Amino acid sequence: MRILLVEDDRQMADYLHKALAESGAVVDQAADGREGLLLAASGEYDVLILDRMLPGLDGLGIVRTLRASGNQTPVLFLSALGEVDDRVEGLRAGGDDYLIKPFAFSELQARVEALLRRGSPDAPETRLRVADLEMDLLKREVNRAGTQILLQPREFRLLECLMRHAGQVVTRTMLLEQVWDYHFDPQTNVIDVHISRLRGKIDKDFDAPLLQTVRGAGYMLRAA
Amino acid sequence: MMPPDSRAGAWAQLRTGAARILRSSTFRLALLYVLLLSVSVAILLGYIYWSTAGYMDRQTTATIQAEIRGLAEQYRRRGLGGLTALITERVARDPVGASVYLLVDSGLERVVGNLDRWPPESPDADGWIGFRLREWGPARTEEHEARAQVFALRGGLRLLVGRDVRDLEATRALILDALTWGLAITAALALLGGWLMSAGLVRRLESINQTSREIMAGDLSRRIPLSGSGDDFDQLAASLNAMLDRIEQLMASVRQVSDNIAHDLRTPLTRLRNKLELLSAELSASGKAIDLAEETIGDAEEMLSTFNALLRIARIESGSRRAAFAEVDLAPLVQDVVELYEPLAAERGQQLIYSSAGPGRVFGDRDLLFQALANLVDNAIKYTPAGGEIQILVDAEPGGGARVEVADDGPGIPAELRDQVFRRFFRADDSRSTPGSGLGLSLVQAVVQLHRASIELSDHQPGLRVILRLGAGQSVDEPVRKLPA
């Protein structure tokens, strides 16, 4: 996995570089917008991590130029601007995800992995499968080891999100954004209760638990 | 034509307005002034009455006395014969005139004069007598007031000399009438003037009051409108506005300090958290150290979430998100909140009951409204004991917009603490043992103020009822209300 990191804050860039490299990625680094664009245009990267405010050319400019030239590499914006319209503006310019500084590294990692998966567009899926858990997206049915599992609509979407990111960490914030479609900070970890309900339905009566809690980060669905 | 309810409303408004004027100190002062003025005018008019009516009285007395002097002179010179002759002559000269004469013998039988009979009234020490006099002339029906002096003569004879004071009485009544009306008109005019003056002052004071109430309700950006006349009220308003500016500045600078702390500590704290994460990855083998590292990460998370909440409140308060307002239907939004929190409530044996009584169209920021409502429901769940019931209602407001009510049957909040719960870091229990940052309701209030909405805490008996009222229109940016002309 090759990642291009365009970030002008030296300390932040070095830290991210080190952390991403440790999680097994090959990271190239650029400190200003023009250099970043030149590297990104080579098309050798799986994911671009762009700071929004950069000297030379800002993150939005890089993405617009890339998209205009047909480059579809997934882009994750990093920004100190946390307003909803900033986020919307970033996504509209062609960004794929948006993370507000400061952020936990596990959040960044989870989102980068999600983008990597999204980067390989397959034919639209109608069935999702993790170990013996199956989801039929057309019939809206879930089966595990041949037994049908009845889910509420929201539980279905929650499971769908986890299955689409099977084997990857999905953070609570990502779940709130993707399953509930609200950007907000819950005072209590309400998501945990939903997960434990879901767990009660898909894992309780089976030998191998699929839904794992990743401490300090979020949740992951995978074959044990 | 006005619809009946708006007419009733206008009438009620008029009545409360009048009640306000009647209660005002200006009006009470004006009433006192009216009283003082009336007393002064009454004294003045009393003097005028006394001097005019008294003058006429004295004139009459002088006329009677002149007449008596004439008769006495005649009596002294020519005796009784002369006196009767003179009286006869005077009566003959002017039979229905204003002068009255009567000479009677000891049996009170008339000897001479133009009076039928001796008046029954008894004279005072100086011999003056006031009596009713029947009109002279053919009709002889009307009775007038008359004044006379009586004398005892030799041989049991008695003489009465007086005047018909009808004209005097009429004039006196006329003067009294004029004075009474004068007094009444003076009092009425003074009362009207007092009313108008108070109404003007009450209106000016009311605009100051209204602004103060809005400021106390939390909108510190409000200012008292000036009338532009530069009068003492304008000067007062300008001083109050300057004071408010100063308070706002001070509050802003205090807030700025806490926001700066939050902002400046957030980045190193995040770095700390991330390094701990790297550390815990290194430690993956040994159980005890990794537990400690993860607990520390949890602590750092908690601090970060407090800082984030503070900064979030600051950003909301800056008002920049108002530009992104759009129409929002509260009903599905509240349903989403209920759906999100239902498992949490169920885990605590509580019931979340959602009901909708009307459309919930409002104008605002979807994510922030969700955040505010989620915080309210979160609080209700947190403070309601197991097995409790939390009711959430969406309804349309009569004047447009909508309201959301969140009512629980927990311990509630004592009335004297209800204003304080919105303060940053406020906890109802001093021990600060309940979980949470103490910023949940501050965030709700920031959202409420951004939306120019209102929030009300009341007693649900038992429990707490929170009512959030939101507007429907884009009127959120209306300018400061003008002073009514």
UniProtKB/TrEMBL annotation, chain A:
DNA bind region: 125-223
A Pfam family? Response_reg
Question: What CDD domains does the annotation carry?
Answer: REC_OmpR_CusR-like, trans_reg_C
Please list the residues that carry the modification 4-aspartylphosphate. D51
Which GO terms of the cellular component aspect does the record hold?
Answer: cytosol; protein-DNA complex
Per the UniProt entry, what are the Gene Ontology biological process annotations, in alphabetical order? regulation of DNA-templated transcription
Among the GO molecular function terms of this UniProt record, one is: phosphorelay response regulator activity
Q: Which InterPro entries match?
A: CheY-like_superfamily, OmpR/PhoB-type_DNA-bd, Sig_transdc_resp-reg_receiver, WalR-like, WH-like_DNA-bd_sf
Residue ranges annotated for the Response regulatory domain, each copy included: 2-116
Residue span, OmpR/PhoB-type domain: 125-223
SMART domains per UniProt = REC, Trans_reg_C
Keywords of the record: DNA-binding, Phosphoprotein, Transcription, Transcription regulation, Two-component regulatory system
Per its record, how is this protein called by name?
A: Response regulator transcription factor
